[in-house]
Specification:
The radius of gyration is 28 Å and the shape is flat. It is of the alpha/beta class. The strands form four sheets. It has a six-stranded mixed sheet with strand order 3-4-2-1-5-6, with helices on both faces. A two-stranded antiparallel ribbon has the order 7-8. It has 14 helices and twelve strands.
Length: about 475
Amino acid sequence: MIKQNQQFLNAILVLTDVVIILFALLTAFYIRFKTTIFGPIGGYLGFGSYFIFTLFAVIPVYLLFFYFFGLYKPFRNQKSIFSEATSIIKANLMSFMVLVAFLFLINQPDFSRILLFLLGIFGIIYGIIERALIRAMLRLIRSKDHNLKHILVVGDNDLAFTFIKKIKAKKYLGYSVRGLLGRKEHLGQEIEGTRFVGTFNDLEPILTKHNFDRVVIAISLEYFPKLTELVDICENAGIKAEILPDYYKYLPAKPSVDMIDDLPIINIRYVPLDDTFNKFLKVVEDILISIIAIIITSPIMLLTAIAIKIESPGPIIFKQERIGYKRKPFIMYKFRSMKVQSEKDEETGWTTPNDSRKTKVGDFIRKTSIDELPQFFNVLKGDMSVVGPRPERPYFVDKFRKEIPKYMVKHQVRPGLTGWAQIHGCRGNTSINKRIQYDIEYVENWHFGLDVIILFKTVFKSNKNAY
């Protein structure tokens, strides 16, 4: 029944996706050929030609990439609307690239590439709205105890009890824990409103008598010798067995598994930017934003350079070694905001609010972050990203790695001009521990939307700790 429900939901999703693509086509066609937003219209193919191409080329390509990026997986298993939105963006971008290449191969110069681009943009917007509405509808249905999957939990420890508590707290996920198996002395007792209905030895007869959709095995390490037996019983009953490992506290919020031949390797830390497509998207984002930023801020950078040269002797650009991606050192650029110092002071000195080393121009450009603008050239070189954990000097990296747990995790992505820690006020002489917590959150939870939020808050939110 559950499988039939999922197939029905997938059919509905496919149909709504088709409608969304056609609606995006109508919008794109109107904007491209019924307005002059993109310049003079001139002669163009009729709507019928675009409609036929959409039916036999655009829709199949889009649906294929939607499937490839996991957009037809059960909504219970989707991480968040942000992860789903990222998948929608990826699917639309890949579809656009494939369709443009296809038009080139069949030599179809009259087909508007602008229309195809607009179709992708509106496909993203409408697709995200569609999935958000479906999510809201399913949450409402499941909160009223409909469309539920019934779970039997095999476990008699804090791990099992925590799992039950989380399931009960999030009814919209569509799960209902209908029983617990544990030690004999707990029979008949209730934990978090769930009753112990048997012992570990009762798994087979209970699965025979009752209908469960899933069995979650949450046993402690002392019972692991029984694990194979428990899994075999579930499989013989035709029920999916899932293991909630007792060592879960060592795993990240989003663990991933790699395969070496036929051996599974659990990654202790999930890094979204290890994904090839995410990495490509990040590089494109960095290049486009850096070029635009350099063009827009070039007058400011020119005036800053003149002011620095007039006020004090020394170079305009301050160069300093920092530790970047995969712990590799690189030279970071900044506008010089201090008097020329010895090399040792540059390596180990820490800036303070009333630092006597700062020049008047330097004090201003540090408070307004103008001193960071040359780092857009670091981004174009590939040393940095626009958004990411701030890089630190080798002296402090060696110091903090010994003092602060997980400090080096930040180096699993490229450092940035601004980051998740900075928009939370972690600049200057603030808590390094707190800064690293934010950096690790960014490393493990990156998505395109998060970068947009960070950039927006960087531009429009002042920071009292910038000095």
